[in-house]
Amino acid sequence: MIDQGASKAEPVTRTDIVIIGGGMAGSTAAAVFGRDRNVVLVDQHSPYPPVFAADKIAGDQIGLLKALDLFEPMIAAATLVSRVVNAQFGKMIERRVIEEYGIHYQTMVETMRAQIPERVGRLTGHVTDIELSDDLQRVNLSDGREVEARLVVLATGFNDVLRTKIGVTRRLLKENHSLSIGFDMTAKPGSAFAFPSLTYYGDRIADAVDYISIFPVRDGMRANLFAYRDPQDNWVREFRRDPQGSLYAVMPGLRAFLSDFEISGPIQSRNVDLYTIENHVTPGVVLIGDASQTSCPALGTGLSHLLTDIERLHAIHLGAWLASSGMGVKKIVQFYADPAKLAVDARALHGAHYRRAVSTQTSWRWELHRRQVYWRRRLHGLIQRANPFDPAHLSAVPQQS
Ligand SMILES: Cc1cc2nc3c(=O)[nH]c(=O)nc-3n(C[C@H](O)[C@H](O)[C@H](O)COP(=O)(O)OP(=O)(O)OC[C@H]3O[C@@H](n4cnc5c(N)ncnc54)[C@H](O)[C@@H]3O)c2cc1C
After folding, report:
1. What CATH number is given to the structural domain containing 182?
2. Which of 19, 120, 283, 298 has the most CB atoms at less than 10 Å from its CB?
3. What is the pLDDT of residue 62?
4. Is the peptide bond before 47 cis (omega within 30 degrees of 0)?
5. Cα–Cα distance for residue pair 397/246, rounded to 1 Å
6. Are residues 157 and 219 in the same domain?
């Protein structure tokens, strides 16, 4: 693997594909495209810093990682979550058998980076400029290094600077769409968590809290709380001072599930704007991951979106694009019109609006809908309790009613 620091670097590196940004999108793209293409990955951080983002792999992400042949290394670094207790109003509603994997985002990115083939060139540095054309793209780093490539894959996450430079605009759908608070927690000596993992839904609509998810990671438990609040909200500030008090203030019923615990790391918070992009069908570049569309963390589809982008590019588009000359818009538009990509992007946006509405809307229609959802779960839980053969009974969960 070429890991070029500024001092020993060649001034110009030539390749087929240059990936800018080495978070989950860029690192996964480098791991996959680097198997059969000439690729250079540029990121400003090595190692990847502790960032609060996806801490869990779940749902269709498992199949996508398997399809990309990246599932085994990823789960080797993660913790299997096979059962969840769903609860609200201080009561257990139901238990479910699930397959999810808890892993801190930093570990996830570093694990993915370890899968990048040796042949991929890696530059640690800050990209300041991109020049695009129908044939050759030029990428400039702040230290004077330059990369020439046929295709730029822009995977710079929320960062707007390079996107704006190449004329791509952000279409804001909802400013401060949601707020996420995350922290690690451990049980105090002599006590233990009474659940394998827990999803506790907000008790009162006025609090605009969706749910808290508490699940195992390598060294303890991770808690991610999702709310639809302004980041300047007093409660958010207060949370840093008194996390437990603030938690129970909006979820009083959560006390029934949490006994003695300690917060074992920093309180992390991030607010997410919901946006898509416009003017992005530009020669020589494709945008993937959060650079192209954000998702609501409460829905947990950000990884699905970026893994789908990468799977589509690799399986369908890149081979044909690189087999003929040029990298004009006729090629680029095929990626943005890919039906599988469009379906995942649409699902993420629809789900983001839904989660916000179901956690904040006070109209009678939404009230009715919330009750339906609650009673569907409750009924499932009651049937489950009456059925001794239900697989969820295999977990050691205290019975509460
Ligand atoms: C709190 C939170 C919880 C979430 N939970 C989930 C979840 O449970 N499930 C799920 O599927 N999704 C979740 N998501 C979404 C998911 O984390 C993101 O979709 C995903 O991390 C996006 O990865 P990315 O690589 O596009 O961006 P990032 O991980 O932000 O990577 C961008 C990279 O670009 C680099 N970069 C930027 N500018 C430059 C430059 N000029 N030069 C060089 N490098 C540059 C940065 O250094 C960074 O490494 C969550 C998001 C948040 C915020």
Report:
1. 3.30.9
2. 19
3. 98
4. yes
5. 26
6. no
CB-based contacts of 134: which residues, under 8 Å, 6+ apart?
A: 283, 284, 326, 327, 328
Distances (CA, A) of 391 to 58, 83, 342: 19, 10, 36
Residues in contact with ligand 1 (CB, 6 Å cut-off): 20-26, 42-45, 52-54, 56, 126-127, 155-157, 159, 162, 180, 270, 272, 289-291, 295, 297, 300-304, 306
Same domain, 294 and 389: no
- How far apart CA 167 and CA 170 sit, in angstroms, is 10
- Provide the domain count of the chain: 2
**Residue of 18, 43, 158, 183 to test ligand 1 pocket, by largest number of atoms within 8 Å of CB:** 43
Question: For the chain, which residues score pLDDT lower than 70?
Answer: 1-10, 392-401
Q: Given CA atoms 114, 115, 117, 123 in this order, what sign does their dihedral have?
A: negative
User: CA torsion, points 369, 372, 377, 382, in degrees to nearest 10?
Assistant: 160
**Ligand 1 atom closest to Cα of 24?**
25
Ligand 1 atom with minimal separation from the 128 CA: 41
Q: Which of 141, 212, 290, 355 to mutate to test the pocket of ligand 1 (most atoms within 8 A of CB)?
A: 290
319 and 223 both lie in a single domain:
no
- pLDDT tens, residue by residue, 198-238: 999 999 999 999 999 999 999 899 999 999 999 999 999 99
Domain that holds residue 310: 2-79+103-172+274-355
- Output the pTM of the full model: 0.94
The reported pLDDT for the residue numbered 389 is 75
Q: pLDDT at position 386, please?
A: 83
**pLDDT score at 276:** 97
